[in-house]
Amino acid sequence: MNILKWNGKSPELPDGIPHPAAYHMLDVAAVAEKLIAPFAFDPSLRDALILLIALHDLGKVSDSFQAMLAGKAVNAPRHWELTEILLHLNNATLARHLRGETSARRQLYAATAGHHGRPPDKGMLSVGQMQDQENGKVLSKTSNDIARGRADIGTGLDDASVLIQAFCALWPNASLNDLNRERAVQLSWWLPGLCATADWVGSNTAWFPPTAPLHNLSELQALTEYLDVARARAEIAVSEAGLAGAAAKSGSIFDNADDGKFILRPMQSACANVDLPDGPMLAVIEDETGAGKTEAALLLAHRMVQTGKGRGIYFALPTMATADAMFARAEKIVGKMFVGPKLTLAHGRAGLSTPFRDLQNALRADDPSCTDWLASTRRRALLADVGIGTIDQALLAALPVKHNTLRHFGLSSKILIVDEVHDMGTPYVAKLLRGLLSMHRAAGGSAILLTATLPLDLRRALLAVYGGDNDDPAYPALTIAGGAAITQFAADTRPVKGPVSVQRLDSVDAALDLLTQSADCGAACAWVRNSVDEAIEAVAALRERGIAADLFHARFAFCDRKAIEERVMGTLGRNGQGRSGYVLVATQVIQASLDLDLDVMISDLAPIAELIQRAGRLWRHMDLRPAADRPVPETILHVLSPDPDQVTTDRWIADLLKGGAWVYPLADFWRTAHVLFKAGEINAPHGLRKLIEAVHGPMAEDVPTAFTAAETNALGENLAQSALGTQNAVDLAAGYRSAGKGANDATFPTRLGLESQTLVLARMVDGELIAWANGADAWEMSEVSASKHKLDKLSLPNQANAAILAVTKNWPEWRRESVRVCPVGEDGMICEGLRYDAEFGLVFAS
Asked: How many CA atoms lie within 13 A of 306 on its CB side?
């Protein structure tokens, strides 16, 4: 049996048996059969895709790969590159069996071979060059690659051809006859993800142990009998991996602890009753902060799942902190949406989340849980029934990075819910988001976007991806692309705070005075500053006045940041305790997805969307704390800002806000101040659209002459960002082989901005360095990030120091290269110009 003599993997033990490559290929095909079953493919096309996946490792039937398994040094294309060459060399056989257009088949050859996270670059170089070959034009590099591939395959050429014919017989009804090139191009982005997922499962020897070839059978009989074995194993493997899928439940997904009834708020009621169009759909939910948009989206997503628009959910949020907060909420809800769903947390520090770790240890058949297999990498997290994570993990599907197709495949069966879309409105991220939605729609996926402050032009661009268009400025609004647009809502029966007055503060001392007075009268207060350094200064000034203010920003070690967040939520959250006289100084970390309730708020001047978000944390829970119980008589957003009518230089705001003046564009600062102080209030929800469009819309007022140069520079930067977003996003129409690069994630970032550097804090105890944090994952919990530009100016500790080398010697190389271990002295000093303590965080000393 020549086709079974080719090994797929080396034996795990010296005296162990090898697993034939053909058997491994059938293992993966059997897993793929289970994974593809819920997708609505025509049976003949489904079998064709399974057949191609079965051939994914055909390149292992080669002399070069077998030599590599034997431990010999090999200078040859990788086995998956040889797979594509073998498929091309056997195109005549595959054409007779699969039929269909030549260009469509070749798109899928590359997709199958490119299952290791990047497309092959040997053999046929592009679809255009393939067509040149068909027209008789000889391409020397292509010809040389194929000739070289033949030599590296060597004696495997004939056996590979036999194996193809045998596999064709296993799926006799496979056909690409109804697949045109356009659809093949779409599938070329999806198929590698399915193949990679099946390959990861099918390569796990706990589920697919090495199996000796069956004897006394013909080659076809041996493959047929083993395929039955592989299918039985795949049934178990897919289930234990957490990929079997969870059925949608019926009935209400929310209840009330008091009477068992969840009273729908206006937007939630609209989402529970709006007509759903046929096919993939996009919904945009626009409403004020605190209006229950999250619950509205989950209600709508549940209906969409029940009508077959998806089999799971991925909830994408702007930051890791907001994802963690949403995970805690979702864990209590998704068990009412699905039967025994697999739930994951997808971001760079998911492994440090205690609730996520607890979930992995849960043994509850019908409740949310997570398998070790799903939790092992961020890429796999998107394969779970329900994923909660950052938008970055989803945006990577639309960038030409390694395994973007795996993310695309994982998302394709999900209702993609993107929260805080207004936070993704920078020109670069907006382009990537449109690319992600285009890719998602092409795979049949549906999406829901949530926002409080989305400009109309961005809403229009996002709706257009799904064929929709809506210029109606009414607010709140529920818009279905190409379908319903609901702008009339019943009155909210819950207590509301009404319009928020806006008052300007013209100095830092005025802000400090107000916080001191408000704390003395028992108010729960916050000052949101635009930059960390100014937040630190404000807390120091308040403490000099005897106010024990808390500080919360992103430049704390992770362990300290989590402790502060828990303290803040325990005080200012919905059921917070110890609110009276509490003062918090924070940066933007508190303005999105953290359910805080404040009596008094001061904010540095910021763009209108930021201020609306911040104002949403004022008098938030009126049902628990009505106006009569508040220690202050009215809701006021106090804004630290210069007078917008008194502009003489481009330092109009820099002299007051210092470093916080460089966080946002100067024109956005001025337009916001000009519009907001003239209005004198933030009237949510009905007055929000007017404020947003006055700052960001086409009729926004011209800035003062002193700002003309700054705005020109900002417009140029926006155009450059937009162009870079267009350039970086994958070109769907070009297909995976031509447009998939398999690049490093850092080469194609999900966001633009100043580069950061991660420090790992440590302390010296008895002559030995230990992590700043205590307990499990202590070194990871000791990480803190800051501006690389600022850190590069300092003399950070030498990483060749013996004590540091003793800590890092067993770390992976990528980790040693990406972080700097920084011992913190007893006085908090790290090096000249930099110190750290648990109360103030990382401080750059002037």
From this structure: 16
Please list, in sequence order, all residues whose beta carbon lies within 8 angstroms of the beta carbon of residue 588, skipping any fewer than 6 positions away.
528, 530, 610
Name beta bridge partners: 639: 504, 603
DSSP-derived letter for residue 448 is E
Mean pLDDT of 112-138: 63
CB 325 within 8 A of CB 594: yes
Residue 145, helix vs strand vs coil: helix
CA-nearest of 467, 438, 124, 448 to 303 is 448
Q: Let me know the angle formed at the C-alpha of 319 by 313 and 324, rounded to the nearest 5 degrees.
A: 65
Taking all residues of the chain, what is their mean pLDDT, rounded to a whole number?
Answer: 91
pLDDT at 759: 97
Give me the pLDDT at residue 363, please: 62
**Do strands 414-418 and 477-480 pair parallel, antiparallel, or not at all (unpaired)?**
unpaired
Instruction: Provide the pairing of β-strand 841-844 with 834-837.
Output: antiparallel
Q: What is the mean pLDDT of residues 4-15?
A: 80
- Residue with more model confidence, 258 or 313: 313
Question: Residue 394 has which token pair?
Answer: 């989803």
Where does residue 563 rank: exposed (0-12), middle (13-18), buried (19+ CB within 10 A)?
A: middle
- The tokens describing 324, both together, are 């963690």
Instruction: Quickly tell me which residue has 């070839």 as its tokens.
Output: 213
Strand partners, 682: 500
- Beta strand spans in 133-223 (E): none
What percent of the chain has pLDDT above 70?
Answer: 95
- 127 pLDDT band, cuts 50/70/90, is very low
Contact (CB, 8 A) for 432 and 730 = no
Distance CA 233, CA 30 (A): 8
What per-residue confidence (pLDDT) applies to 143? 61
Nearest to 746 by CA among 818, 813, 812, 796: 818
Q: What was the pLDDT predicted at 651?
A: 94
Element (H, E) at 841: strand 841-844
What single-letter DSSP state applies at residue 318?
Answer: S
CB 134 within 8 A of CB 102: yes
Q: How many helices (H) and strands (E) does the chain have?
A: 35, 24
Mean pLDDT score, 691-701: 91
The upper half-sphere exposure of residue 259, i.e. CA atoms within 13 Å in the direction of its Cβ, equals: 3
